[in-house]
Amino acid sequence: MRNFILFIRRFFNLILFIALEVLCIVLIARTHMMQGVDIMSSANALTGSAYQKQQDVVYYFRLKSMNDSLVNENARLHNLLARASGSLDTLKDSSVRLAVLPTDTLHVVTYNDYTYRQARVINNSVASGNNYITINRGTKHGIGKGMAVVSGTGVVGKVEYVTSDFASVLSVLNVKQKVSAKLKDGTYSAVSWEGENPDLLIMENIPQQIKVKKNDSVYTTSYSFFPSDVLIGTVTQTKRASKNNMQTLYIKSASNFRNLQYVYVIENKLAAQRQRLEDSTKMTNKK
Q1: How far apart are CA 94 and CA 85, in angstroms?
Q2: Mean pLDDT value across the chain
Q3: Using CA atoms, how far apart are residues 253 and 133, in angstroms rounded to an integer?
Q4: Residue 198: how many CB atoms within 10 A of its CB?
Q5: Fewest beta carbons within 10 Å, which of 82, 110, 166, 214?
């Protein structure tokens, strides 16, 4: 304890200077939008670089489990393509274009109005109320803010911050995140996370007359930032709310957030055009 007090006394001026510098940076980031964005971008770049080095070590020891996961996913995708086109030999004539690249390069798949870019997860949290995921792709790889992120099995989140080499994804396991969803009969509502179990999502305000069974699938809608019909999860339990006679559905997430290794970032090539149209419509209605 005595040595600690002596250390503080010896370096008091330096410690005070650093503390004031940090305070100034925080105040600038909160009160000045432009400088705040620059600071956030720089912080994300440094954090992403640190996560990348940490994940490189973890990545080496997970190669076997990742290889098994990718083999299973490839088999599933081949089966889907075979059913869709009748034969894998006709793939070259379909609307899917695959870029077969070396392992360390960016894999890109274009399907109709969407472009899928492969990325590796280098940091992922599931324990807090506001979980984020860091991926090893950024603007120089074609990643932009607002793009949807999915795994090989279901939804993951939405790109929130981007640097040249990294991106921060707002996870579905975030109390701020809501995903427009539908049941098999077309009933719409929003799926969200309660902030506790990372395997469980909820879908509220489902009319009592809608018959929902255990293991029914829940998918994204065209109203969300995800492409339509991406699997969100399967129903595990239904609960009736006595105050409004509505159902709340408990949904097992299709993506395993505890072991998230690879994801796909989806670019909607028509998103900007759609946004301009909707903004123009809103402006016209205000007049």
Answers
A1: 7
A2: 78
A3: 16
A4: 19
A5: 214
